[in-house]
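Annotated sample (chain length 285).
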Amino acid sequence: MFLALILLAGQTCSSDQIIQTMQGISRTAKGRVGVAAIVLESGKSVGFHSQEKFSLQSVDKLPIAMAALHAIDQKELDPEQQVQIDRKSLLPRPYHSPLRDQFREGQSFSVMDLLRRMIVESDGTASDTVMRLLGGPEAVNSYLRYLGITDLAIGAYEHQMDVMERERSRNSASPSAIVELLRHIYGSSDLSPRSRSALLMWMAATQTSNRRIKGLVPKETEVFHKTGTSGTQHGFTPATNDVGLITLHGGDHLALAVFVSDSRASEPIREKVIARITRTLWNCW
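Output written by the structure step:
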């Protein structure tokens, strides 16, 4: 029985207890798990493998969207600009693109609609299109350097990466770097109130999985998150991720990043690992 089962809501937990509990939960993943978590108001934090690099998968859409919103705020990108996506620009299967499935001949979309689709639907075609508008991966990395965030690198478009690419992915980050990115979203002076509000609205509406960070917290909990998932071959999954901002029961805000890497466990187990780690932090903080 994991210690997690006795860390109850409202109980005072030491950092060692929390880490021990999360490590126990992580063993069921049959892979490598990295966690970084911080209560933004108090600075209280825990983590393990928090400085190691993990493949972002679709979590990379979060910094790309932030860089685009910053460009909009700086009048460098028009949010209402219409972008024509033709058949050649649509990502092929098995890349995830609801836009491709819905508009097989392509169509014109506004920049803001593409941003919404890449966060809410995790659309790869939308994400690659937005990054091209920005000037490529280096433009996103330039924005991250502007924020002072290290250990987070965007090195490729989605269509350039194999869907089974492992932690050596050119788009990678440490859990701690992602938590720092989330801190910027929460208390952002880098994004206008309008851009920040739009991003949080999209993160709250994300459709890709409610069984990870949101899986075991009370249904009324305010959660803003972005998932990322690789393909699975022969029972091996390189990446199952979820990162986000959670409003705790006392009103404080938790920034959390959980990465499950190189796992031999099933998807329900991988997702439950993320959900149980989140619930442990919810109970203790």
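Annotation: The mean pLDDT is 93.
Annotation: The radius of gyration is 18 Å.
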